[in-house]
Amino acid sequence: MNQMGRAAGPLPSVSGRRSPVPILQVATGFWASQALLTAVDLKVFTILFGGPKTVAEVAKESGGDPVALEALLDANCALGFLHRNGDRYRNDEASNGYLVEGSPGSYVDLVRFMRDPLFGIWQGLADTVRRGTAAEPSMGMDQVEIVLARGFHNGAYALMSRLAEILDIEFSTYSRMLDVGSHTGAGALCLARRYPQLQATLLDRPIFRELAEEFIRSTKLEERVHFEEGHPDEGKPGAEYDLVLLSHYLSRRRADMGKVLEGVIQSMRRDGKLLVTEFLLEDSKSEPREAALFRLNVLATYGSGNAGALTRSELCQSLERAGFKDVDMVGLPMFGITAITACKA
Question: Which SUPFAM superfamilies does this chain map to (predicted)?
């Protein structure tokens, strides 16, 4: 008898929709995320950054059990984050680019945030759906937002770098920029670094000053970028900025979007440019997939007050009502994110 066994055929189906595989893929999704997160915790990708190593070599540097570590490394090979050649493992190109501790553009802080505290917040999703209010995280919401801001900084910086290349905006014609509610000012720092004529103000709550100023210093832009304490919803009326950035702020302030846009437009000069980046839904409210799940993330974190569906058509109409013209939207090949540009009428 063949010890490999006999492969069973596909489940009989008339409609082609009886397979439980899609259900199982989603239900076991945490298997893959835990495999990645554990490898990050053990600094596997950092250890392999210098070149291929055996399980024994990785175990010696990480402090892991060799047998258990082999299972973890092979799982990450299955996910595409590692590659195995004989008894040696090496990083995938993406892992070298984003999962190495301390490297420029590293996503390590973001990946760790997904487990702590975000995974715990999502575990309370059922109660949040029942009550409409999110439970206060153990570390406090302010601290959660600071950790989140640090984790997303490199991704937001990379996104703005890409936008500067693909959007039809002549950034070199602007000199005064306002970054509203982005916590770390990633977008403003990226543009200020690329365009030396830009002077930028980061407007946010006082709790983000220390973090924002850390990133300002790390990019050596203290002379042209400064943090100003205030409420982002209010903007800086009468300041006559050339360019205003709203980076993933409207989805967090869904219930007060009109107020936010009013503060923004009062902060701009005539014909000034607004650049928004957001997870925006189509009118179906279920596409793109990442935007639909991000909406659920906002619900899990903040409760139902800011969990309304933010659609492309709704935002377009809201911008026009607020006094913007030439509204344009570009869907980006970046995890379901949309870029929106508009001018003050």
Answer: S-adenosyl-L-methionine-dependent methyltransferases, Winged helix' DNA-binding domain
Please report which residue ranges of 204-288 form alpha helices under DSSP H.
209-218, 257-265
Q: Which residues have C-beta within 8 Å of that of residue 82, sequence separation ≥ 6?
A: 39, 44, 48, 73, 76, 89, 90, 91, 92, 95
- CATH number for region 108-344: 3.40.50.150
340, 325 in Cβ contact below 8 A? Answer: no
Tokens of 121: 């917040």
Asked, as a colleague might, if the bond just before 137 is cis with ω within 30 of 0, I would say no
Name the β-bridge partners of 343: 273, 325
For residues 247 and 176, give the distance between their C-alpha atoms in angstroms, rounded to a whole number: 17
Question: Identity (one letter) of the amino acid at 312?
Answer: R
**In this structure, is the dihedral angle defined by the CA atoms of residues 28, 79, 81 and 58, taken in order, positive or negative?**
positive
Q: Where are the domains of the chain?
A: 21-98, 108-344
Distance (Å, rounded) from C-alpha 343 to C-alpha 291? 25
pTM (2 decimals)?
0.86
The DSSP string of 50-62 is GS-EEHHHHHHHH
CATH number of 21-98: 1.10.10.10
**CB atoms inside a 10 Å sphere around CB 123:** 11
**Cα-based distances in Å from 39 to 91, 221, 280:** 11, 34, 32
**pLDDT digits over 87-115, tens only?**
999 999 999 999 999 888 899 999 998 98
Q: Do domains 21-98 and 108-344 have the same CATH topology?
A: no
Rounded to an integer, the average pLDDT of 233-247 is 96
> Over the chain, what is the mean pLDDT?
92
Torsion of CA 329, 200, 226, 147, to 10 degrees: 20
Measured between alpha carbons, how far is 147 from 43 in angstroms, rounded to an integer? 19
* The two three-digit tokens of residue 163, written as one number: 């936008």
Q: Is residue 343 classed as helix, strand or coil in its secondary structure?
A: strand
